Amino acid sequence: MSTGTVRLNNAVFYAHHGVMQEEHRIGGRYEVDIAMDVNFKDAALEDDLAKTVDYERVYAEVKDIITGNKFFLIERLAFLIAHRILEKESMAINVEVTVRKANPPVGGPCDCAEAIYTAERT
Predict the structure, then answer these.
(1) What is the per-residue pLDDT across 69-78, written as a single tens digit (0 to 9) for each?
(2) What is the 8-class DSSP label of residue 24?
(3) pLDDT tens digit sequence for 4-41
């Protein structure tokens, strides 16, 4: 079987996650990258969306998880996103999700903190 990768890069959301109460109250910027391995040969040959992942639908699922919840950890976000994609997108063989939190409260200058999670269809 041949595979390709479909990616969403740097999807940006404003949400309320973090260990500190202030993060839940004020919120912050979150960025998400998603890479989904797919056998999209038939989709490419037939120009048929039904034979690959629908990245518009994936984006909507990510948005729902990130903006519709408040969690302490970006690790939880990455985990939930990966498993939701595998649940909803039957063409995805595996998925890698990166969640970045801009300007994390670490006591000094830091562009972002990130969690990367990979899951595969069982």
Answers:
(1) 999 999 999 9
(2) H
(3) 999 999 999 999 998 888 888 898 999 999 999 999 99
Residue the block writes with tokens 């909803």: 88
d(CA 74, CA 65): 11
Helices (H), 1-119: 21-26, 41-46, 55-67, 74-88
- Annotated catalytic, 63? no
Distance CA 112, CA 59 (A): 21
Angle (deg, nearest 10), helices 74-88 and 55-67? 140
Query: What are the backbone dihedrals phi and psi of residue 54, each rounded to the nearest 5 degrees, phi first?
Result: -95, 100
- The domain of 73 spans 4-120
Residue entry with tokens 């562009």 = 111
pTM across the whole model: 0.93
For the chain, the domain total comes to 1
Query: From residue 12, how far is each of 28, 29, 63, 80, 86 by CA, in Å?
Result: 10, 7, 9, 17, 21
- How far apart CA 2 and CA 56 sit, in angstroms, is 23
